[in-house]
Amino acid sequence: MKALNSPAVKLMYDTEHVQVMDGDLLHDLERVAAEIGSVQIADVPGRLEPGQGEINFVQFFRKLNQVGYQGLVELENNFSRPGVQGELLAYEALCQISSVRLKLEQIQLIMQSDVIVHGCGFRNYLL
């Protein structure tokens, strides 16, 4: 990316892949923050919804806020339970994360869902 030196080329930061491959999610986030164009979140193991694995997403979003990221954040996960029940678990996890009062109003969350969700201080854009 640095060799290309183009504003059109950005990094897609995937929490599940970074955690599996390196195990130091926060350090890596800080190291590449200026190069990130979008963030995908999923927990480890199993690429499940936030809160179902080993990643501390409260710390992750704090760091994301500290590095000044204001771009797209996507839920890119499998669900630990089928259907709407799994989607609601993901949504509840995001509500718990938002309870720490991070500045997430500028982060757009795209939920891969037909369920319309409200509240928790997030703007939700459903595709």
Summarize the structure.
The protein is of the alpha/beta class and 127 residues long. It contains four helices and five strands. It has helices spanning 15-21, 25-32, 57-66, 83-98; strands at 11-14, 36-41, 72-75, 108-111, 123-126.
Can you describe this structure?
By secondary structure, this protein is of the alpha/beta class. It has a domain at 6-38 and 57-79 and 89-116. The protein has four helices and five strands; from the N terminus they run βααβαβαββ. Strands 1-2-3-4-5 form a five-stranded parallel β-sheet. Strand 3 (72-75), helix 4 (83-98) and strand 4 form a beta-alpha-beta unit. Helix 2 (25-32) packs parallel to helix 3 (57-66). The relative contact order is 0.15. Residues 100-127 have low confidence and may be disordered.
